[in-house]
Amino acid sequence: MPRRHRGDDRDVRLWDLDSGRCLRVMTGHTRAVRSVWLGPDGRRALSGGDHRERVRRLWDTETGECLRTFDGYSSSGARLTGDGRFAVCDGREGIEVWNVGTGRCFPLPEAKGDGPPAAVPTPDGRYVAAGDSAGRVRVREIDWEQTVSDPSRVTRG
């Protein structure tokens, strides 16, 4: 019998670490869940399905409601910026920056390297560090105000 992994049931669970009790089960993924990122304030979570589902979901952890979906390939996950306004995701063609409020995607194709990238925003949200399977890490400064108003100007400098 094949071994089942956590997340194979397609659910995202929020746990109370002190009691070990499950507080909430969030359902909606159609394939296995491969990544979960809890926002800094704990009120939102971002989850990624496997490469066949090609969807990331933004959850309200208080209600369990799916607030928004972000389409696209994801190999190693997605993360929210410190202020929760943007989701930074790895994608097949490079790093994707999603405006959480509008659902618009602003790709950073120049961040693509060898193999699927992995991306992490810095705690202050000024930069995105992107690594690839060749071991290279690139850091991009993000002009968030330009990103919101003009997707053709995602990075500065």
UniProtKB/TrEMBL annotation:
Q: Which SMART domains match?
A: WD40 (SM00320)
PANTHER family documented for this protein: TRANSCRIPTION INITIATION FACTOR TFIID, TRANSCRIPTION INITIATION FACTOR TFIID SUBUNIT 5
What high-level taxonomic lineage is stated for the organism? Bacteria, Bacillati, Actinomycetota, Actinomycetes, Kitasatosporales
Give the residues annotated as coiled coil: none
Matching entries from InterPro entries are given as: WD40/YVTN_repeat-like_dom_sf (IPR015943), WD40_repeat_dom_sf (IPR036322), WD40_rpt (IPR001680)
Which Gene3D superfamilies does this UniProt record tie to the protein?
A: YVTN repeat-like/Quinoprotein amine dehydrogenase
Question: Where does the source fall among the domains of life?
Answer: Bacteria
Under the heading Pfam families, the entry gives:
WD40
The identity of this protein, by name, is: WD40 repeat domain-containing protein
